[in-house]
């Protein structure tokens, strides 16, 4: 029987003619990578927390891995809707060594601030191009970032309060009635 080798199978690809600018296409690729990097950061945070017995925090980070991957998928879908086939690049190597839980949360918070800053640049780029649909698309991410930054900021605030005042402050707070 004549079995075709993989090299004999030729897929014809259609001509690339996206309905967004080349700069926006490249920007989308960059953000897909940033979202995948965030997923990997949270994966290492999840592993660290679980290993150290912080199971609730591990679950939180595990949920965040899925969220970041869904953010990347949203970008991929948008690109495809605009007839652009995005480049899914290899994730850059991360050396994520955490020394303690505060370090984990700080890394997450700093990463979210970075992500906010790059989406701001993206939104600015879309506005300058008068690409209002892309601007609207990117605005969703900026709103999402408000929650993400707040989450890690709040945990960090609590850790810092613990450093200053010890665990008693949280027991006291539990007993307060509002
Ligand atoms: Fe998708 Fe947390 O940035």
Explain what this protein looks like in three dimensions.
It is a single chain. With 178 residues, this protein is mostly helical. Helices cover 71% and strands 0% of the residues. It is built from five helices and no strands. The protein has helices spanning 22-51, 55-81, 101-128, 132-165, 168-175. The longest helix is centred in the last third of the chain and has 34 residues, at 132-165. It is globular. The model has no long low-confidence stretch (mean pLDDT 88). The structure holds MU-OXO-diiron. MU-OXO-diiron (FEO) binds at residues 35, 38, 68, 71, 112, 115, 148. The site of MU-OXO-diiron has 7 residues, from helix 1, helix 2 and helix 3.
Number of strands: 0
Largest sheet data? none
Order of helices and strands: HHHHH
Shape type: globular
Distance between the termini: 79 Å
Number of helices: 5
Summarize the structure.
With 178 residues, the chain is an all-alpha fold. Helices cover 71% and strands 0% of the residues. The model has no long low-confidence stretch (mean pLDDT 88).
Give short descriptive properties of this protein.
178 residues; mainly alpha; 5 helices; 0% strand
